[in-house]
Amino acid sequence: MQSSSSIPARPAAPGNAPPDTPPDIERSTGLLSRLGLRFTAWAERWFPDAFVFAAIAVIVVAGAAMANGSSPQAVAKAFGDGFWSLIVFTMQMAVVAIGGYVVATSPPPARLIQRLAAVPRSGRQGIAYVALISMILSLFNWGVSLIFSALYARALARRVDLRVDYRAAGAAAYLGLGATWALGLSSSAAQLQANPGSLPKSILDITGVIPFSQTIFLWQSMVMAAVLIVVSVAICFFSAPTGANAVTAQDLGVDLAEFKPAAQDPARRRPGEWFERSPLLTILLCALGFGWLAQEFMAKSPLVAISGLNTYNLLFLLLGLLLHWRPRNFLDAVTRAVPSTAGVIIQFPLYGAIAAMLTSAKGHDGIALSDRIAHLFVSISNTDTFAVMMGAYSAVLGFFIPSGGGKWIIEAPYVMQAANELKVHLGWAVQVYNAAEALPNLINPFWMLPLLGVLALKARDIVGFTFLQLLVHAPLVLFMLWFLGRTLDYVPPVMP
Fold first, then answer.
1. In whole angstroms, what is the distance from residue 167 CA to residue 460 CA?
2. How far apart, in whole angstroms, are the C-alpha atoms of residue 74 and residue 92?
3. Of residues 370, 340, 355, the one with CA closest to residue 447
């Protein structure tokens, strides 16, 4: 998300080690970290951009639909009809990323980061704090979590008295995306299911509307989030290298100079500049926006109000505008945030097309591909094993389709149909997806990119530590999904 001018590039590493990985780093890591480093180096070499995986998925689903008996004409029509079906949700997800970035880079959070950076008394403590803050913030907005935690890790790295392992701190900053984000308010799947206006009709007819009270605010879901936070922080603390084994930002050649906005001309010679630099427009816009939000929260239950993506995004945009105070500063932050939305904008139409081909392209017997896959899930699962089977499947698929909302559009038609047939709590089925969907993020470089841009690191620098988290998270998450799911009963879909 940072521009190339705002964060200095990291110099090339010396010696014969892999690119950007000095020999002393490789020697100082443990077995699990070395495996993770090598895995990511392989993935970076051989895996194409996530758009390529989305395009391949389109071709595979189109071929599968025709193998199911659909005509090429029917498949092509479903592709075109579904291509723009997610246009509203695409814009909403892009604004989630922009709003999070804008809030995280405003002056008040910057001052808060400096105060927080003074708290830890050791490098391990600092890394544990980064992990805790990252995961808690991600429950509210993953964009805020990603950028704020990265900036916090940089602030800690400037404390030479702590000797913070910069790689471990970067991995800790990423845990919001790798552990808890999908269990919070910015969960794409939960937001979609709570907003019938954003959900394709083909999925709405299967699932109905599922409010937050039946997904992220289930006590079972909150227990799972709490356990993941405690376990992740403990792993961060005990796995962080210390003393001579700690590799600092200075050791890696990372420039930790703070980002400074462009100097402002106090003269404001042009009328347009006066409006850009004056807080007057900020005050008036925020008065209107917060006035509407106040009415919205008074007229509805707070859970219902915040579950609306438009309301959620407006809140963060207004907060970002208010915190930046002057329109010019706000617009500069938005400009730096926009590049991070490219993947969402270009990939989500393909996901909408995939969903349409799964549900609308009927075979000769009138059965769609989503029905076939749902029946397969039913045949190999029962009420007790559904959570584990679905969780493992979603985690594997998530490595190839690194998009919480886009992948849900693909999975929901057959997964939720199977949940209905097996009488599995529909809200918990969404949470099974959410918890499992975060697992591949721990080793998939796609969502790391904004964080790595701020940290001036490469994915291979941090993935050894996130890989260690994955080895613990995977069995723990699958166990909790099975165990906690046994406490919930099936409720039929509720239509809007």
1. 9
2. 30
3. 340
Query: Distance (Å, rounded) from C-alpha 46 to C-alpha 245?
Result: 30
Cα-based distances in Å from 496 to 91, 196, 208, 210: 23, 7, 7, 10
Instruction: Tell me the three-class secondary structure of 373-410, residue by residue.
Output: HHHHHHHHCCCCCHHHHHHHHHHHHHHHCCCHHHHHHH
pLDDT value at 259 more than 50: yes
* Distant-in-sequence, close-in-space partners of 252: CB < 8 Å, separation ≥ 6: 10, 22, 25, 166, 167, 457, 461
- CA dist 311 and 197 (Å) reads 13
Residue with tokens 């949470």: 431
Which tokens sit at 258?
């703070």
> Against a cut of 0.85, is the pTM above it?
no
The pLDDT confidence band at residue 15, using thresholds 50, 70 and 90, is: very low
Spatial distance between the Cα atoms of 214 and 294, rounded to a whole number of angstroms: 25
Instruction: Give percent of the chain with pLDDT exceeding 90.
Output: 18
In this prediction, residue 39 has a pLDDT band, given cuts at 50, 70 and 90, of: low
**Nearest CA-CA partner of 417 in 384, 368, 357:** 368
* Residues 136, 44, 60, 408, Cα dihedral to 10°: 0
* Separation of CA 202 from chain center: 25
Place of tokens 């979590």: 145
Query: Is pLDDT of 323 > 70?
Result: yes
CA distance linking residue 236 with residue 438, whole number of Å: 17
Question: Is a pLDDT exceeding 60 seen at residue 264?
Answer: no
The CA–CA distances, whole Å, from 423 to 40, 483, 490 equal 39, 16, 5
Q: Is the pLDDT of residue 262 over 70?
A: no
Please report the DSSP string for 253-278 in residue order: T---PPP-PPPP-TT--SHHHHHHH-
Local confidence band at 272 (pLDDT 50, 70, 90 cut-offs): low
Please check whether residue 12 is in contact with residue 20, taking contact to mean a CB–CB distance below 8 angstroms: yes
pLDDT > 80? residue 76 = yes
- Residue whose C-alpha is closest to residue 140's, from 72, 186, 81: 186
Q: What pLDDT, on the 0 to 100 scale, is given for residue 191?
A: 82
Output 274-279 pairs: Cβ under 8 A, ≥24 positions apart.
Answer: 275/327, 276/326, 276/327, 276/328, 276/331, 277/326, 277/327, 277/328, 278/326, 278/327, 279/325, 279/326
- C-alpha to C-alpha distance for 477 and 387, rounded to whole angstroms: 10
Q: How confident is the model at residue 475 (pLDDT cuts 50, 70, 90)?
A: very high
pLDDT band at 24 (very low <50, low <70, confident <90, very high): very low
Number of neighbouring beta carbons within 10 Å of residue 132? 19
Q: Which residue, 208, 328, 196, 216, is CA-closest to 266?
A: 328
Is the pLDDT at 5 greater than 60? The verdict is no
Q: Which two tokens stand for residue 71?
A: 């005509």
* DSSP SS3 for 489: coil
